[in-house]
Write a structure and sequence with these properties.
It contains 4 helices and 13 strands. By secondary structure, it is an alpha+beta fold. Mean pLDDT is 84; it is low at 1-29 and 256-265.
Length: 267
């Protein structure tokens, strides 16, 4: 694979955005969000989720299924399995395996490495010294989408509700024998968010579905989250990239190389 082809891989890392970006990290310069009409129970559930996700260190897994358009405009699906390891404020590791191969994102507080295990090519980018700073500066400016971004910011609840205009609790459901709150939110233009969180004091997210009602075919993104572990103690070595034998470093091209996402896209 040529360096040019690899550039496309790492910009999309994991096939069309590293297993699927859910939400955009709100930049400091963003305009004020519209007035919200969110019920107290829905707001409280998201607030509790956000509090839980502010833990100093944790890991989780996610299975994702997202829609993409092929060269003929037909809507197809691509699946990924992802494991994320977080150590606040400045360490993050994402391991992705999917229909398009295996990829990694490794952030050590100073640099971000994007690595394609199948091609043994990688790119290194300088980064700020916080996870959110990295996502805002490196990911946004370079046009690299980030998986489940809202859940990893300095304020997960605020990030998730950014741009949302209405929200409510639909009902309580049982998933694998445990109770969950089923929440529904609307984010203009035409984005519908369904979030399932544990019906307890942790309110950890279990499922998220993002549907684009105003796009042809109403495509969606589905993420099933599991294996939340707040007892992990990841060492520095987990966030240190060591190129395997035969690996080649290539330059990451500017954001213009990435495909344009629909306005308001959370993918």
């Amino acid at each position: 694979m040529s360096a040019t082809a690899f550039t496309k891989v790492v910009v999309l890392l994991g096939g069309l955005a590293l297993a699927g970006l859910i939400g955009s990290v709100p930049a400091e310069s963003a305009t004020n969000p519209p007035q919200q009409t969110i019920t107290e129970d829905a707001r409280a559930a998201v607030a509790q989720m956000g509090k839980s996700l502010l833990a100093n260190q944790f890991s989780f897994q996610a299975r994702t299924l997202r829609v993409y358009a092929d060269k003929n405009g037909e809507l197809l699906h691509i699946a990924h399995v992802m494991k994320a390891t977080v150590r606040r404020p400045d360490k993050l590791r994402i391991d992705v395996t999917g229909d398009d191969g295996s990829h990694q994102l490794i952030y050590d507080g100073k640099t971000v490495v994007l690595f394609s295990a199948d091609t043994k090519r990688y790119s290194t980018i300088s980064a700020p010294n916080t996870i959110q700073g990295m996502m805002e500066q490196v990911m946004a400016r370079r046009g690299i989408d980030f998986p489940l971004a809202d859940f990893l910011t300095d304020d997960p609840a605020k990030a998730f509700l950014f741009g949302v205009t209405s929200g409510r609790e639909v009902n309580a459901v049982t998933i694998d024998g445990a109770p969950y709150r089923h929440l529904l939110f609307e984010q203009p233009p035409g984005i519908e968010l369904e979030l399932w969180v544990e019906k307890n004091d942790r309110a950890l997210p279990r499922r998220l579905i993002v549907t684009y009602r105003d796009l042809p075919g109403q495509p969606n993104f589905v993420a099933e989250l599991s294996d939340w572990n707040f007892s992990v103690h990841p060492a520095d070595a987990e966030f240190t990239f060591r190129p395997p034998e035969g690996a080649v470093q290539v330059e990451l091209k500017p954001a213009a190389a990435a495909p344009t996402k629909p306005k308001g896209s959370r993918q």
